[in-house]
Design brief:
By secondary structure, the protein is an alpha+beta fold. Among the domains are: 135 residues, Galactose-binding domain-like (Jelly Rolls), CATH 2.60.120.260; 93 residues. 18% of the residues lie in helices and 33% in strands. Strand 6 and strand 7 form a beta hairpin. It is globular.
Length: 621
């Protein structure tokens, strides 16, 4: 930054309410006029700095124990300017990053955790949300916005949910302040979070980043992307005649369902849905909430002809507020315009579809009417420039690499399942890259293994999700890493499972064991260690068995598959033998390989330790 101003400027991360990392030297930095002398006063000590020719200055605060609150005064020796940063705590600071399952806010989980939100009042858990920004030309030096917020029923709604429950568990255990810096973005692949140097190990991703570093090329991509999207929607809207149809010609359909599965055919475009409901006089003219599960891909809702809300993509649960007076006694009409851009269109199954009026619930599952408004070919895939390699590192990570932290928590991988073969190297590169950038040694890196997702399967199958979980497991060979296993925390029909409390708790258990050195804690579920062949059986050994291996929901371990040298896997029998598992099948007389929970959503993955933590999926290959 070429600083030419006359004022002292601080980065946004150094601001009121911040949590500084305890028990280490802490860098405080900013900008001022070239050559200007800056004084920093903190905890009874005085630190001096001088701005260089570019206006940059910094001081290193001495290591201090957890505590606070404190104030910090930063002033110029040559002017009367003085900045006071108030309400500072010293504790442990964790960078939270990844894609949507880390980004997912407590606000999205108000129905799941109402009590936790209501009683949330902890000034010692604080959160800084990094604004979304990508840059392919150079690393940013500051964020455009952001502030530290303490956990309370209002502010916690903006916290990363997984991060909040992680922090809560650590605070309950150690009673020290916890700071969360949330730099995450839905849909982002791992390569978007790598620096330029780290990307050089991956030529294809590096070339992609270099192309986008040309501003003219980037602008061209953005213009073409916008024009393509606008043209698709313009043609769709012009063709859409659904609302003009006489409702007498509308046909019946089950909701929830995908319209392709209901015989409408395979197409993209617009389908209108309509349902009439009776509202008794006791519920009329009252405010209400319309809950419509998840809809693929976009929807707009009309209540009695009045537009009530819209949602732009399938990943956001539909929860629409209906103002007082809109619902009337007698017949009321709910009308939905659903736009599907690609793949199957319709409604997620096994989600709530209901109208809530006070304590009364009107079930909306069942028969609706529909009419096809317009059919189109799939919308061309957007450029998703924000997810391209390098951009998110430069925009969301680089500005905070000088801020001392305790470690990282990472929840990501869904967007890399298209090419799971490279993920092990990508994640190892990211761990190394970030550690180098922070210059604080081998900072702990804790991450979540992908949960179960999609249709459940009880037979061995080819699975990119299983391959990526295996890649994540193999990253444990990197010192200072730990993995929270989530194979039992997913939802078959939702890539965004709502159980973030157990995710955060398991990350915290891993931290207690790996980072805080608490040997009394069982930090992880059973991990495959080794195997030996005994006749027609393979005997598996595990680490992290805690008080012992157990089978949950069943008499014997399930979800095992076995193969000979031909690698043709078949479903296997298994039994516990102490803290080992014996696996065999009558179909494989000379076994060589075993897999466990090898499917997108494995059924009968019931191997746990006595402490209730599930075993990681694995292959012995």
């Amino acid at each position: 930054m070429d600083y030419t101003g006359s004022k002292i400027i601080l980065p946004r991360i150094i601001s009121d309410g911040m949590v500084l990392q305890r028990n280490t030297d802490v860098k405080v930095w900013g900008w001022a006029s070239a050559g200007e002398a800056v004084i920093v006063r903190f905890m009874g000590k005085v630190y001096h700095a001088s701005a260089n020719d570019s206006g940059e200055w910094f001081v290193k605060l001495e290591s201090a124990e957890a505590g606070g609150p404190y104030d910090m005064v930063i002033e110029s020796e040559e002017s009367i300017e003085k900045i006071t940063v108030k309400n500072i705590l010293l504790g442990d600071v964790w960078l939270c990053s990844g894609q949507s399952n880390m980004e997912m806010k407590m606000d999205s989980l108000k129905d799941t955790y109402p009590e936790e939100i209501a009683r949330c009042c902890n000034d010692y858990i604080r959160h800084f949300c990094v604004p979304v920004k990508y840059d392919f030309e150079r690393p940013e030096i500051d964020f455009e916005a952001g502030s530290w917020e303490a956990a309370n029923p209002e502010r916690v709604l903006d916290f990363t949910a997984a991060g909040y429950f992680f922090a809560l568990k650590l605070f309950d255990k150690y009673r020290i302040p916890i700071g969360l810096i949330n730099a995450s973005l839905g849909g982002s692949p791992a390569e978007a979070w790598l620096s330029e140097n780290a990307l050089k190990e991956f030529p294809e991703h590096y070339e992609s980043a270099k192309k986008l570093s040309n501003r003219d090329y980037l602008d061209k991509v953005l213009r073409e992307d916008e024009a393509t999207t606008e043209a698709w929607y313009s043609a769709l809207n012009q063709d859409d005649k659904g609302i003009e149809n006489n409702t007498a010609s509308w046909q019946n359909i089950k909701v929830p369902s995908y319209w392709e599965d209901e015989g409408l055919g395979s197409f993209n475009g617009v389908v209108w849905f309509r349902k009439e409901i009776e509202i008794p006089c006791t519920l009329a003219d009252k405010p209400a909430r319309l809950v419509l599960g998840n809809i693929v891909d976009e929807d707009t809702v009309f209540i009695n002809g009045i537009e009530t809300g819209t949602t732009p993509n399938q990943y956001i649960p539909r929860k629409y507020s209906i103002r007082k007076g809109l619902l009337k006694e007698g017949k009321n009409t709910i009308l939905l315009r659903v736009v599907n851009t690609s793949g199957k269109g319709g409604f997620y199954k096994e989600k709530p579809y209901q109208l809530e009026i006070g304590d009364s619930i009107i079930d909306l599952i069942g028969e609706w009417q529909y009419v096809i408004g317009a059919k189109r070919s799939p919308m061309p895939e957007p450029a998703f420039v924000q997810w391209r390699p390098l951009g998110l590192y430069n925009g969301m990570i680089a500005p905070v690499t000088d801020y001392a932290i305790k470690g990282f928590i990472w929840y990501q991988g869904e967007s890399n399942t298209k090419n799971p073969g490279e993920y092990e190297n990508l994640l190892k590169a990211l761990v190394s890259d970030w550690r180098q950038k922070w210059k604080m040694g081998n900072l702990p890196f804790l991450y979540v293994q992908l949960p179960n997702f999609m249709e459940a399967s009880e037979i061995p199958m080819k699975s990119n999700w299983a391959e990526l979980r295996e890649a994540q497991r193999r990253v444990l060979s990197v010192p200072g890493t730990a993995m929270a296993i989530a194979i039992d925390l997913g939802e078959w029909n939702d890539i965004h499972p709502v159980n973030k409390k157990d995710v955060g708790t398991r990350l915290a258990l891993a931290a207690m064991r790996t980072v805080y050195g608490d040997k009394t804690i069982v930090g992880y579920g059973p991990m495959y260690k080794s195997y030996r062949i005994d006749g027609n059986k393979i005997i598996l050994s595990f680490t992290d068995t805690g008080s012992g291996l157990v089978v949950k929901k069943g008499e014997r371990p399930g979800a095992f598959a076995i193969a000979g040298a031909d690698r043709i896997f078949v479903r296997a029998d298994a039994e516990l033998t102490g803290n080992d598992v014996a696996v065999w099948s009558e179909k494989v007389s000379h076994p060589v390989y075993v897999r466990y929970a090898w499917a997108d959503n494995p059924m009968d993955a019931n191997l746990y330790n006595s402490e209730g933590l599930p075993a990681s999926p694995f292959t012995t290959e």
